[in-house]
Automatic annotation (TrEMBL):
Record bears the keyword Oxidoreductase: yes
GO BP: malate metabolic process
Annotated keywords: Oxidoreductase
UniProt record similarity statement: Belongs to the LDH/MDH superfamily. MDH type 2 family.
Domain Lactate/malate dehydrogenase C-terminal span(s) in chain numbering: 1-146
GO molecular function: malate dehydrogenase activity; oxidoreductase activity, acting on the CH-OH group of donors, NAD or NADP as acceptor
Top-level taxon of origin: Eukaryota
Protein name: Lactate/malate dehydrogenase C-terminal domain-containing protein
InterPro entries: Lactate/malate_DH_C (IPR022383), Lactate_DH/Glyco_Ohase_4_C (IPR015955), Malate_DH_type2 (IPR010945)
Length: 167
C-alpha cells in the first residue's frame, strides 16, 4: 500500500489503489466510512501508539524500514506494482509542491535508482489528504528556513500532527 506525504499523523494510506489478494481494497472492504476514518487514523497514529507503549520510538522498526527501502531500490519492481518512499518532489507529476521530501509511489529497475509512478488514480478524499500532508511539510520547511538559507524561520505547525511523545 502506498503511503503518501509526511511521516506524521498526516501521512496518507492509499487504500484507493491498494489490493487485497489481487482485488481492489474497495471491492473487498465495502465500508468506505471505515476506510476513510478508522483505518486511515489507525495507520496515521501507529507510530505514536508504539511510542506510548514503549516510551520511546522503535529503532528496530526504523531499521526494518531502511532495509525495505534499500531493497526496493536494488530489486526490480514487479510489473504493475510499486513501492512508496520519501523523494524530493521537484518535477513530480502530481502537482505536489516543489522542493520538499514527500512519500510517493515509485518503481525501480533494480539499479539503485527510482522513477515516480505516473497516473495513479485519485479521488477527492485521497487528494484532500495528500494536500493536508503537503501543507504540513511546507509549514515544516518554513520552520527551518533559517537553516536552509531561505529566509527567517516562521513555525506555525499545528500540534495535532505530532506523535505522542514528540512535544
Amino acid at each position: 500500500m502506498t503511503i503518501w506525504g509526511n511521516h506524521s499523523t498526516t501521512q496518507v494510506p492509499d487504500f484507493l489503489n491498494a489490493k487485497i489478494n489481487g482485488r481492489p481494497v474497495k471491492e473487498v472492504i465495502k465500508d468506505t466510512k471505515w476506510l476513510e476514518e478508522d483505518f486511515t487514523i489507525t495507520v496515521q497514529k501507529r507510530g505514536g501508539v508504539l511510542i506510548q507503549k514503549w516510551g520511546r520510538s522503535s529503532a528496530a522498526s526504523t531499521a526494518v524500514s531502511i532495509v525495505d527501502a534499500m531493497r526496493s531500490l536494488v530489486t526490480p519492481t514487479p510489473e504493475g506494482d510499486w513501492f512508496s518512499t520519501g523523494v524530493y518532489t521537484t518535477g513530480n507529476p502530481y502537482g505536489i509542491a516543489e522542493d520538499i521530501v514527500f512519500s510517493m509511489p515509485c518503481r525501480s529497475k533494480g539499479d539503485g535508482d527510482y522513477e515516480l509512478v505516473k497516473d495513479v488514480a485519485m479521488d477527492d478524499f485521497l487528494w484532500g489528504r495528500i494536500k493536508k500532508s503537503e501543507a504540513e511539510l511546507i509549514a515544516e520547511k518554513r520552520c527551518v528556513a533559517h537553516l536552509t538559507g531561505e529566509g527567517n524561520a516562521f513555525c506555525d505547525l499545528p500540534g495535532d500532527t505530532m506523535l505522542p511523545g514528540e512535544m
